[in-house]
């Protein structure tokens, strides 16, 4: 092989490896630098239409370019056809997985200090493999370079794991600073968690005290170690009386660790459900992880509309427990009566207000219960409820210039919120078509197929149209809908179709919006 071809081939393989590096670094960053996420997403992109807990027909397992490249690469190695192996590795590196963008449409790669470290170490590991291969008499430079292209996700995974202790030490400085600020300011800490509803409940609580001042809440979904410490360091000032901390978790021990340096006196639990079930494994594990928020709290607000949470008051002996929800047994109750909400506290009706269509009554009840514990008087309830505002991208209702009524519930989705959004769509005063645009629900583990099929069945039973975005949940949604699906690879294409097709008197629900590192 001439020198020119060697150089061209080497540069081409380097570019292929670089393309893979950019793709999978973006996945890692979007998944909060969790190394195990790379394997999960590698599986997703290899079999993008396979839903959990259901046998999938062979026709539903499409032969992708990734599969073709893998078979050809293995065959070329077995028969020592190195030019073919190099060519196949080049095609794979530059183009696979098809659809996983290098640049990103919804979430571009951000070259943070942490990402640069992971990238640099990944390149060093790849270089080490090439050097080792060159030193072995039975291998060639081409085999090693081609192997590196295929192994990029592994290099990133290993790099992220090796750097994790260092990153934890780096982050500890911000945690220490946040701890010192908490000790100096000494606000009353309210911690809120739940499989869903925690951000809405946090925002409702902040709205209830908006005019009083002195209450600071974590912004957006800053609910992990880095986000919580940042919220404290940047937002907590002298004079802050109450700090509302949203706390999320991907596994046992995380909330307990947050509470160790940001100890709450009041804890609020909104729901237990199959969110992050793919990571956590079971609802029992999820419940146990959420229960950690009660360990240091002296007062606990519990949504007893949730079956699992209804058992918690009996487990919280020695603590003050205030229950919330819609049931008669709830200490703080929001009763839905048509377009009115009746607010009851310990059996006494204190207020009746116009219902806010995009708000969940149970989240409002939890926020009210926490507000009462923080000093809100019962006389203030009716006035303060008027200050509640919809949370962005969570079942927000608006009317487009075309006259189409739009429900924006794109922030995330779970079985409970999806059903609530369907009820909201059904309740709208429109005379025309009702359309649901969704990629379905994710991270539900073995429940994912079942929950998506059930959701699609409910769409069909209400005579609504279903438009599916992406490929991940197509089998489940199709099986549940039991009618031909309109499908688009990208949400932007679905939005274009909606704008061109629907008109005044129609309504559309945008439910969930997967970032583009999902197939």
Write up this protein.
Helix content is 47%, strand content 14%. The strands form two sheets. It has a nine-stranded mixed beta sheet, with helices on both faces. It has a six-stranded mixed beta sheet with strand order 10-11-15-12-13-14, with helices on both faces. Helix 3 runs antiparallel to helix 4 (82-95). The protein has three domains: 3-166, no CATH class; 186-385, Mur-like, catalytic domain (UDP-N-acetylmuramoyl-L-alanine:D-glutamate ligase); 396-511, Alpha-Beta Complex (Protein-Tyrosine Phosphatase, Chain A), CATH 3.90.190. The protein has helices spanning 3-30, 36-46, 65-78, 82-95, 113-135, 141-150, 152-185, 198-208, 225-235, 254-261, 277-280, 283-291, 312-315, 361-373, 381-385, 415-427, 448-461, 474-481, 491-501, and strands at residues 188-193, 215-217, 242-246, 266-269, 299-303, 320-325, 332-337, 340-345, 348-354, 396-399, 405-409, 434-438, 465-469, 486-488, 507-511. It has 519 residues and is of the alpha/beta class.
């Amino acid at each position: 092989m001439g020198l020119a071809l060697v150089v061209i081939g080497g540069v081409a393989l380097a570019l292929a490896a670089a393309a893979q590096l950019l793709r999978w670094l973006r996945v890692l960053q979007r998944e909060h630098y969790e190394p195990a996420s790379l394997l999960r997403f590698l599986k997703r992109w290899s079999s993008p239409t396979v839903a959990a807990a259901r046998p999938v027909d062979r026709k539903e397992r499409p032969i992708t370019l990734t599969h073709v490249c893998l078979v050809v690469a293995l065959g070329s190695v077995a028969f020592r056809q190195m030019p073919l192996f190099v060519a196949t590795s080049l095609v794979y590196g530059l183009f696979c997985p098809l659809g996983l963008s290098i640049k990103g449409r919804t979430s571009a790669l951000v070259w943070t200090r942490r990402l640069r470290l992971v990238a640099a170490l990944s390149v060093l590991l790849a270089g080490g493999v090439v050097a080792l291969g060159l030193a072995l008499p039975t291998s060639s430079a081409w085999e090693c370079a081609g192997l590196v292209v295929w192994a990029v996700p592994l290099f990133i995974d290993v790099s992220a794991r090796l750097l994790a202790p260092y990153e934890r030490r780096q982050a500890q400085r911000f945690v220490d600073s946040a701890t010192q600020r908490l000790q100096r300011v000494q606000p009353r800490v309210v911690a809120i968690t739940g499989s869903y509803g925690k951000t809405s409940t946090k925002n409702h609580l902040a709205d209830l005290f908006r005019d009083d001042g002195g209450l600071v809440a974590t912004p957006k979904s800053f609910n992990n170690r880095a986000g919580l410490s940042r919220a404290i360091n940047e937002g907590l000032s002298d004079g802050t009386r109450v700090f509302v901390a949203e706390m999320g978790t991907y596994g046992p021990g995380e909330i307990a660790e947050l509470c160790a340096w940001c100890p709450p006196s009041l804890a609020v639990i909104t729901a237990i459900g199959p969110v992050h079930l793919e990571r956590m494994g079971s609802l029992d594990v999820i419940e146990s992880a959420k229960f950690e928020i009660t360990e240091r709290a002296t007062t606990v607000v519990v949504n007893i509309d949730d079956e699992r949470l209804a058992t918690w008051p009996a487990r919280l002996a020695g603590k003050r427990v205030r229950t919330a929800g819609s049931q008669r047994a709830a200490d703080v109750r929001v009763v839905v009566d048509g377009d009115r909400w009746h607010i009851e506290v310990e059996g006494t009706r204190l207020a009746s207000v116009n219902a806010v269509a995009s708000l969940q009554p149970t989240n409002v009840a939890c926020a009210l219960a926490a507000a009462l514990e923080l000093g809100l008087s019962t006389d203030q309830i009716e006035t303060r409820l008027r200050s509640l505002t919809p949370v962005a991208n969570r079942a927000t209702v608006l009317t487009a210039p075309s006259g189409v009524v739009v429900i924006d519930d794109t922030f995330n989705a779970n079985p409970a919120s999806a059903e609530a959004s369907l009820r909201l769509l059904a309740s709208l005063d429109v005379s025309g078509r009702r359309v649901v645009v969704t990629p379905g629900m994710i991270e539900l583990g073995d429940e994912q197929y079942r929950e998506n099929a059930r959701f699609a069945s409910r769409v069909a039973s209400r005579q609504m149209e279903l438009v599916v975005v992406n490929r991940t949940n197509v089998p489940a949604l199709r099986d549940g809908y039991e009618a031909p699906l309109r499908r688009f690879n990208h949400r932007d294409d679905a939005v274009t179709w909606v704008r061109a097709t629907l008109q005044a008197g129609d309504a559309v629900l945008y439910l969930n919006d997967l970032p583009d590192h999902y197939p």
